[in-house]
Amino acid sequence: MIVETLKVFVTVAEQSNFSRAAELLNLSQPGVSLHIRNLENEHGAKLMHRSPKHVKLTEAGEILYSRAKQILSLYEEAKHEIHLLTEKVSGSIHIGASFTIGEYILPRVLAEYANQFPEVEISVTIANTEEITQALKANKLDLALVEGNVSSHGMLITPYMKDEMILIASSDHPLAANRAVKTERLQDQIWILRESGSGTRSFCDQFIQAAGLTMKRSYVFNSSQGVKEAVYAGLGITILSRWIVRKELELGEISQIPVTPKLLERNFWIIRNHDHSSTMAVNVFVQKLLQRKT
């Protein structure tokens, strides 16, 4: 099988020695040499410069080594995915998510997962980033998806996706008529904010502080839906994830205010507790998340 031959080739290249490669692969040295000779015959090119103590790749060998590593990596991924298909995934999984992810991204992923693995019992807790992180640390959750800054202490943190943050206002707000607004134009505005502990609130606070803005007044809501409705009603301006207001922007119910300089993106994270044992159901769900980043 070509995969076995490529494994032999890569091992020889990395060990720079036929004898050491043979030991690692539990093959005879003539067997290793035969694999390499067959590869060279197949490609019609010398792949290795050999000496009694050292092996060095030729230019052709360097090209094959780079591609062989990619092929072997893809092959291992395929083996793992096929294994998952043949293994029965069951049990339960308790997922935590901050509001933006839990209300606007997670349901689609869960629908696909539940359809493929109907025997897994799924429960979801949605709260702000700080509350979800604390629940995970207390082993009340199997894994969580959150936004914003997360302490890595005791946590296994995996990047999930980037999230575009935008400034929004009601369609009849004075700022909505501008094609671009410099940050100084945002002085003494009325702001609609999430509660402390929210990843969205943390992003807003950092932006306001970095821009040196003062607020004429602020209103605080403990959900993104509440913030969005307050903006739609003309109560003030805010910064939210584009995920939250996609439909309202398309319908013209809310306006995006382009800011100069442009607002930065933030990260979404998959977090797990180092001390919490992981099940097949959890591992497969994480794999599904990483495969579906839209």
UniProtKB/TrEMBL annotation:
<dbReference type="Pfam" id="PF00126">
    <property type="entry name" value="HTH_1"/>
</dbReference>
<dbReference type="InterPro" id="IPR036390">
    <property type="entry name" value="WH_DNA-bd_sf"/>
</dbReference>
<dbReference type="Pfam" id="PF03466">
    <property type="entry name" value="LysR_substrate"/>
</dbReference>
<dbReference type="InterPro" id="IPR000847">
    <property type="entry name" value="LysR_HTH_N"/>
</dbReference>
<feature type="domain" description="HTH lysR-type">
    <location>
        <begin position="1"/>
        <end position="58"/>
    </location>
</feature>
<dbReference type="GO" id="GO:0000976">
    <property type="term" value="F:transcription cis-regulatory region binding"/>
</dbReference>
<dbReference type="GO" id="GO:0003700">
    <property type="term" value="F:DNA-binding transcription factor activity"/>
</dbReference>
<dbReference type="InterPro" id="IPR036388">
    <property type="entry name" value="WH-like_DNA-bd_sf"/>
</dbReference>
<keyword id="KW-0238">DNA-binding</keyword>
<protein>
    <submittedName>
        <fullName>LysR family transcriptional regulator</fullName>
    </submittedName>
</protein>
<dbReference type="InterPro" id="IPR005119">
    <property type="entry name" value="LysR_subst-bd"/>
</dbReference>
<comment type="similarity">
    <text>Belongs to the LysR transcriptional regulatory family.</text>
</comment>
<keyword id="KW-0805">Transcription regulation</keyword>
<keyword id="KW-0804">Transcription</keyword>
